[in-house]
Amino acid sequence: MPTNKTFTMIKPDAVADGHSGAIIKMIEEAGFRIVALKKTQLTAERAGQFYAVHAERPFYESLCTYMSSGPIIPIILEKENAVADFRTLIGATNPDNADEGTIRKLFAKSMQANAIHGSDSDENAQIEGSFFFGNVEQF
Ligand SMILES: Nc1ncnc2c1ncn2[C@@H]1O[C@H](COP(=O)(O)OP(=O)(O)OP(=O)(O)O)[C@@H](O)[C@H]1O
């Protein structure tokens, strides 16, 4: 069975509120294998690099402040159809629009503090995973 990878981050609000364990449990129960995982904290500058695609958006500065406000847990995951299945598992960006039972419906506080990130393409999963992990950590 072919598998592929996606990248996720448990965001500062969810880590600070003690939801990391429950979120990782949901991810594993949905059939994802953890390839690489760590706890770290972004500077505002590195958060800005990660979200550079949003640099012109009005929420960019606030997003960088929020994403550097506390520890995060970046994770590389593997599963068949990983990117699309993970986006389904986390739910819509705005928790008000997220389906029942999704990670964001359960744990997100707002459109910005929405508990978790999920890559939106195989290409971005590769780029984002490499932002946090070296080859030696990806097995
Ligand atoms: N209108 C907004 N106001 C505040 N924050 C926002 C807004 N839109 C997006 N964000 C924040 O920026 C992140 C990236 O936005 P994007 O549109 O790429 O959403 P996404 O693909 O669902 O989220 P992610 O990339 O984190 O998985 C969102 O997850 C959220 O934290």
TrEMBL record:
It holds the Pfam family NDK. Its EC number is 2.7.4.6. SMART domains: NDK. It comes from the Bacteria. The active site is at H117 (pros-phosphohistidine intermediate). Residues 3-137 form the Nucleoside diphosphate kinase-like domain. NCBIfam families: PRK00668.1 (NF001908), PRK14545.1 (NF011116). Belongs to the NDK family. This is Nucleoside-diphosphate kinase. The lineage of its organism: Bacteria, Pseudomonadati, Bacteroidota, Cytophagia, Cytophagales.
